[in-house]
Each structure stands twice: as C-alpha cells, then as structure tokens.
Design a protein that fits this description.
The chain is 4% helix and 39% strand.
C-alpha cells in the first residue's frame, strides 16, 4: 500500500500556512463541503451522491461537479457550502449562479475579515482523458510560506479539457520543505529525460532529524490517480491519500516503461540498517465500487487501498528489477465480475499507484531509491 509517511511529521510546523484548521477560528476561510441544493437537479447526475462533495482539502482551489451532460444542465444552479465557523462567502451561499459559461469564482472571507481565499466552482461533463499517459503536462506549484515549489501532473484530452487526476505526497512535503526548495528537491518531480519526452522521477528521501525522532525517517516518492487531502495531515496521515477516479470502462492491463535503482542502505522505521535487504519499487492498480449499499460515496484511502471489501479487481507487478535502461513492465487485472448497469452510472473507480519504496508506508526503505516511469497505458475491455 502507498501511504505518505512524511505527513505525520508536520504538526510542529503546520501553522506556517494560513487558513488551516488548527488556527484560531476567526482566521479560517475554507470551504469544507459543497452540494447542489435541490432534488429536482438529481437527474443531471449519475448518482445522488455526486451532488455532494465532502471533505474538501484546504489545498483545493477548484471544486468540480461531474454531470451527465452540459447541454441538459440548467443554466443556473444553486450551490450550497459548509464553511469554517464565522466565515462568509460571496456570491451568496446557495444563490442561483450561471455555470454555463465556465467556472464561477467564490470568495471566502474569515470571521475577522483579515483572510480571504478564492475557489472556482465548475460543472464538467462526465468525460475521461486518454489513458495513454506520457506525463508531458506539468505545472509548478508555489508554496508561499517557505518559498518552495513542487511539480503537479495533470492530463489534457483531445478537446483541450484539463483533467486533474494525478496526485502525490508533494503538498505534504512542501509544508516542511526548506526555504527556496526547488521542484527537483521534492520526492516526485518531472524529468526531461523520459522514455519519450518528459517522464516522472520518484525518489525516497530522508525526513531529517524530526523524522528520525518520530521513527518516521523516510518518505518515498509516489504518484497516483486520485487526490491528496491535506486536511488530514496532522491527525490521520493515512487518510490524506484519496485513491481513484470514476470510470465507465473495465480495465484489463497496464503497461509502461520504467528505470529503477535502489538506494545503498535499507533501513527500518528506527533508521536501523537491515543487512542484506534491498529496496524495491512498487506499481499497482485497483478497480473498486465507489458507491456502497447505502448509496454513500466511497473512496479508498491509505489504510485500505488493497483491502477494502468493495475492491473488484487488482493489478500488481511481481517486481521491478533494478535497471539503468528504460524497461517495459506489464500487469493484468484479476478479480470479480462487473455489473454493467453500475458501470454505466460510473459506479466504479480506478486508481494507479507508483512508489519508489514498496514498504514506504511502514517508513522502511532506502534513501536514494529512484524510480522513473513514462508512457503508461491502461487497456480496457471491448477496445477496438
């Protein structure tokens, strides 16, 4: 399993960033959840649960509702928000707004009026990018609190629509990053030397003296389909990783290219060298039901991504042997049957996970282990 080991180390420095949940209430300016107000709009969504977006991360700037069709969507919709205590929002909470021309910007102001945060709310038609990932689309995200910056990967489909489907542990690492840290100093970053064009580099890093003191001495580089929720950094780091994106196709196989070299010394959670142990990279994919029997949305987290009972199929590489040359890998999905009606309603989700240290979730691995990936492709049933 992939877990973001570095994140539990940040309690003592988390106050550097404004508007996080452990600051005084009158300084908070976050949207906690959002929903479309009115059952008469339910037919525009595949599932009633899609009308609500819960547990919005403090790091989110865009709130996306997925609908069946933009053509049939009413021109104006009322979106309701749950805000941090005392905060106010403009336009007015629950007011009718026109989303037909693109995102609507909302501004949240803290109770004391000293802090503001802008969010964009957008309605997207249910669509997915090509599942041929070349990792050519990358942006630099600046962390103003300590002048560090890191890379964020995204996809663009044939219509030019952006899909923010990739996440990594970089936002957590940014909280404790050194001043003036550059993207290449983070656990996951873009490289110009991919198999073709750009690629992704993931490397296992030391978390320094603070990490060793808390018996969490390393952080593995990682990349996954899903979201990173910084809200859970302090108290439950295993729930920062929200795995999966909704799907309407059944995955069969994952292929791609990689390079990998393990670091020189494998250590356990106490930073003790384990003689003879060699670090390993990891790659796997999970296909699961995203709505439970009660109609509630489900997302896999760091503590159940390979064990949740709603998992239908799993694909995992047996190994990624060390190599300095770009080498092809392949893994096949194995598991149960898929319900066509649930599939049509996007009732399944898919995640794809890469990590530079297979046991990084236990804070074990080798500092310096480096995994490169590029040209990853997911194949589906009934493809021509």
């Amino acid at each position: 399993m992939l877990r973001i080991s570095m994140l539990s180390l940040v309690a003592c420095v988390f106050l550097m960033s404004s508007c996080f949940k452990d600051e005084p209430l009158n300084m908070e300016c976050d949207i906690l959840s959002a929903w479309v107000e009115g059952d008469e709009y339910a037919s525009n969504f595949y599932q009633p649960a899609q009308m609500r977006i819960e547990n919005i991360s403090s790091g989110e700037k865009e709130i996306v509702f997925t609908v069946r069709s933009l053509i049939s969507l009413p021109k104006q919709l009322p979106v309701k928000f749950n805000l941090t205590p005392g905060a106010k929002i403009t336009p007015e909470n629950g007011s009718m707004q026109d989303f037909s021309n693109g995102p609507v910007t909302y501004t949240v102001t803290s109770e004391d009026g000293a802090w503001k945060r802008e969010y964009t709310v957008v309605f997207h038609e249910a669509s997915l990018p090509s599942f041929k990932f070349s990792f050519e689309h990358v942006e630099v995200v600046d962390n103003s609190s300590n002048r560090s910056s890191y890379h964020n990967f995204y996809e663009v489909d044939s219509n030019g629509t952006r899909h923010n489907i990739w996440a990594s542990g970089n936002p957590g690492a940014a909280i404790i990053a050194q001043y003036d840290s550059k993207p290449e100093s983070f656990p996951t970053y873009s490289t110009d030397n991919g198999y073709e064009g750009k690629g992704v580099c993931m490397n296992t890093q030391s978390t320094g003296s603070l990490g060793q003191m808390m018996n969490k001495p390393i952080a593995a580089g990682n990349l996954f389909l899903g979201k990173f929720n910084v809200n859970n950094v302090l108290f439950n780091p295993l729930k920062t990783t929200e795995f999966g994106i909704p799907m309407n196709r059944v995955p069969v196989r994952v292929t791609g290219y990689y390079k990998y070299q393990p670091g020189p010394e494998y250590t356990n959670a106490k930073k003790e060298v384990v003689p003879g142990r060699v670090d390993q990279a990891n790659a796997y994919a999970v296909f699961y039901r995203n709505i439970d029997a009660n109609g509630k949305s489900v997302v896999l987290l760091g503590d159940d991504v390979l064990t949740n009972p709603l998992i239908v199929k799993i694909a995992q590489v047996e190994s990624l042997p060390p190599t300095n040359e770009w080498t092809r890998f392949e893994m096949f999905f194995k598991g149960g049957e898929v319900d066509d009606a649930i599939l049509e309603a996007q009732g399944y989700s898919l995640t794809l996970v890469f990590s530079s240290s297979k046991e990084g979730d236990y804070f074990e691995g080798a500092v310096g282990s480096t995994l490169y990936i590029d040209e990853v492709e997911v194949s589906f049933e009934n493809e021509e």
